Amino acid sequence: MTRNEFNRLMLIAAAPAVLLFCGQSGFAQGGEAEITYAKNVAPIFQAKCQVCHQPNSVAPMSLLTYQDAIKEAKSIKAKVESRVMPPWHIDTSIGIQEFKNNRGLSDEEIATIVRWVDAGTPFGDRGDLPPRVEFPDPNRWQFAEEFGEPDLIIKSAPYTLPARTMDKWFRPVVETGITEPRWVRAIEIKPSYPDGRRIVHHSLAFLEQDEEGITGLASGATDAQQGPGLFMEWAVGKVGEIFPPDTGKLMLPGSKIHWEVHMHAVGEEIKDNQVELGIYFYPKDYVPKNRTVLRFLDASRHQNLDIPPGEIAVTQQMHVLPAPARLENFQPHMHMRGKAMSMEAIYPDGRQELLSHVNNFQWNWHVNYVYADQRRATAAKGNDPRDHRLARQHHGKSQQS
Description:
Elements: H1 37-48, H2 66-70, H3 73-81, H4 107-118, H5 144-147, E1 152-155, E2 159-161, E3 168-170, E4 173-175, E5 182-191, H6 195-199, E6 200-208, E7 230-235, E8 240-242, E9 247-251, E10 256-263, E11 270-273, E12 275-281, E13 290-291, E14 312-320, E15 325-327, E16 329-330, E17 338-346, E18 352-358, E19 369-370, E20 377-379, E21 389-397
Helix pairs in contact: 1-4, 3-4
């Protein structure tokens, strides 16, 4: 289990005759080594797919076995070739490419799956199968392996979603029960299991508390930051965050969590769905050097997007950094029409650097691309629009009828 996130994927099928390939030689036509499920494909599925493609998970089918995989072989090939699955839609040709949570397929892995399907999905030698992976219990807190059970659990109010209805945005406010200031080192968030995972598209948890400016940030940031901001979010592709040892979030007495839970109907009534926050504190006598604040960098200029039929609309917004900052991740968020988004740094000397670009955005997946420690970008405070800024481009295309 990775420290920060956990992601997902799709997969495979063919005819019953594929079992006849099991006894063939280890070489395909032209002398190339034969690609088999047991030796070549199963390890890829284990590493990049099965975390989601298992019973009672978010994926529509299981990929734990060969029998599972061959049922959708042609579909898997198409999804993999188009890089729709697994859900890792970052442009691999530009920007930062080192991530803590990379679940994307390499060109070699894609070619392996394609060749396997094209060859008729041969099984191979059973002795080549990798050991079965034991996945964590989805009912458990995933960070418990490192920290134990959460120090504080906060639940949203329960909500019953009818079998057939419009999408719902549920926004209850819940007391945290905090009676003294506490610094947070990790937060996990999860819908109820298994039904909640089926209906929750994403969930936001905003921390509300009284502060003068914002405590614990660089002095220049207090003018721009009016509150503690977004505490944590859940979406397919993000289940929480473990902060670096010198970083944390601050919770104060009297604080509240303002939830926003986006749900969609699945054809049956789902009763009393809740989303839970599992919060892990630093020891009481520890104060981290840095305070982290999760903020949206809006690329829409606070305006509604107007996309004419058959056209592409592009918006761009500049954000002046109010204080020195370290960029930990890139997480584009758009809705159904969104196609691509990028984040770019503009330095005081006029130099521009494209940090990240998602060129194949998929609305069902809101992947958080967490930079590896050695690739995290640092940025100086910006004084005016010509100084160090960050921009995100938001591209949308209308659906033609």
